[in-house]
Structures are given as C-alpha cells and as structure tokens.
Amino acid sequence: MDHTVMKVVAAAVVEEGKLLVVSKQAAPDIFYIPGGKPEPGEAPEETLVRELQEELGVASGRLERLAEVEETAALEGVPMQLTVFSTTLIGEPVPAAELSALRWIDGREPDLRLAPAVAHHLLPLLRDKGAL
User: For the whole model, what pTM was predicted?
Assistant: First the structure.
C-alpha cells in the first residue's frame, strides 16, 4: 500500500474580503487556491512564485506562511500536505496552463464546490482572522 503524501504549496490571496480560487481544466467544477507541487530541490516559496507565474501570469508580493493543512487532495484523492502562504499579486491574474477559471469568493457562495482543504481549513482560518 502506498502511503506517499502529496506535497502542495498554495497561495491565499485575499482582496477586499474575497479569496481568489481557481479551477483546473481537468475538473472545472472544483475550486481551490492557486499553487502546485514542488520540483525536486525547490523551496516552498520558489514553488509558489513559479506556479503563480505559470498558472496566472502574475508575480507574488511578500510571502507569509499562513498554515500547514493535512487533507485529502480534491482531484487525486490521496493524502495531501498543503503549505499555504498569504500573499498579494503583482499584475492581473488570468487563468493559463491547466487552469480553466478563477473567481473571487467570500466563501458563502451556494453554487460553488470547493476543495476540502479550502472548505474545511482555509475558509474557517481566514474568517477567524477577519480576512473574509
């Protein structure tokens, strides 16, 4: 049995009380925060800078470690360790690479299917901090 934990680094970008979420072309109905898996030898911060450029065509502002989340990955269905950084974006985000859409949410949208890590961990954390 494979007990490998998938490592992912992602950005919690909040502007005017709304969180940026994205969906992939492979599963356009599931929204999560932007980010991805580290390349070999890549630091979490380097991963996030690269992923934001590849997926959204933007640079990041200052990265501040926000949370470590353990949850099941929404698409792969495997255990995931998610490192979340709070940041701002430099530039206007536009979905690219494998992304199909982006939305700014307050977390109360009834029509939105969120990845478990976002729904169960990140939204409550951001609400507790008064960001949403």
Answer: 0.93
